[in-house]
Amino acid sequence: MTSSSLPERAERRCHNLLNPFHSAHYFSPDLGRELGAVGVEHPSAAYFAVRAAAMGAVGPGVVTATFFNFRHELVARHVPAVWETASPAVVLAARERVVDATLRRLLGEELIASKEVAEAAELALRATEACVRTARPLYAAHADLPVPERPHLALWHAATLLREHRGDGHLTVLLGAGLDPVEALVSHTATGKGMSPKWMLGTRGWTRADWEAARGRLQKRGLVDEEGELTQAGVALRAEIETATDRLDRAPYEHLGAAGVERLTELMGAIVPTMLGAGAFPEGMIGKK
Question: What percent of the chain is modeled with pLDDT above 90?
Fold first, then answer.
């Protein structure tokens, strides 16, 4: 096992705050408005476009591969057609407007302009210096984008890099654990920390039959019981997945150092609750039902 100078799970605690800072814009009314203004009106098309645009005008296979847990048929319904409506460059510009408007609405102008946000941006960007492109396609694509000048957008950019860096590594771990996309969703939801089945089925393109079939496969492996709850083996597997993801994601946080990670976590721990309190995410999104 690789030794670390960081406290146990320090990188995961920091990620758990950076991730919602990044992802709030996916649930923002500003996304529909700005993407609609450039002709992208379907919510799924808007999501696929803003997250994939950094990779260029890619086809549905690339999006399905890199996003992992979406049904390919749903992706193919919108990609590559979305690029005929709005080019990746147009989408990226719209995404920056979405993020700016979303953060200003959720955090307020005083916090946006604060020295804490600027410090958090500096620390998060320093952490990204140790991210690696190898076998991390979504991270690598976003790493080729310029860093925004305004601190709140620079912080969002850095959070995006760190989020996609961890996410790319996480997919490698899921494959190593023998979980297909639906099995990964079902087992994560069973922890109580993932999106509810209702949200998953409403956004990922899978059917209830797909969900139940995946749960059946997990039950045969002894990972969930008849009620869909994680067994002891299932709990252990999900813990192993997160630990292995931590290991693959350690480099940027080691680069930042224990004090830097602690400070970034402290700063984000003050920023993110403000976003949550302002309604950044829909009610009932997280849970087992």
Answer: 94
Q: Are 136 and 127 in contact (CB under 8 A)?
A: no
Q: How many CB atoms sit inside 10 A of residue 21's CB?
A: 26
Give the pLDDT confidence of 104-128 residue by residue, as tens digits. 999 999 999 999 999 999 999 999 9
Per the structure, how many domains does the chain have? 1
Identity of the amino acid at 39? G
What phi and psi, each to the nearest 5 degrees, are found at residue 205? 90, -5
**Helices (H), ranges, 57-207:** 60-67, 72-78, 81-85, 88-107, 109-112, 115-128, 137-143, 151-176, 181-190, 197-203
Domain that holds residue 200: 10-277
In a domain, residue 235? The reply is yes
Neighbours of 281 (CB within 10 A): 15
The per-residue pLDDT for range 40-78, each reduced to its tens digit, is: 999 999 999 999 999 999 999 999 999 999 999 999 999
Angle, helices 181-190/208-220, rounded to nearest 10 degrees: 80
For residues 67 and 30, the answer to whether their CB atoms sit within 8 Å is no
Q: Report the C-alpha gap between 173 and 167 in whole angstroms.
A: 10
Does residue 282 fall inside a structural domain? Answer: no
The answer to whether residues 184 and 231 touch, using CB atoms and an 8 Å cutoff, is no
Supply 260's token pair. Answer: 């830097």
Domain-located, residue 191? yes
Contact status, residue 66 vs residue 240, Cβ threshold 8 Å: no
288 occurs within a structural domain: no
- Decide if 267 contacts 120 (C-beta within 8 A): yes
| pLDDT per position as a tens digit, 130-181 | 999 999 999 999 999 999 999 999 999 999 999 999 999 999 999 999 999 9
- Structure-token match 């939801």, residue found: 189
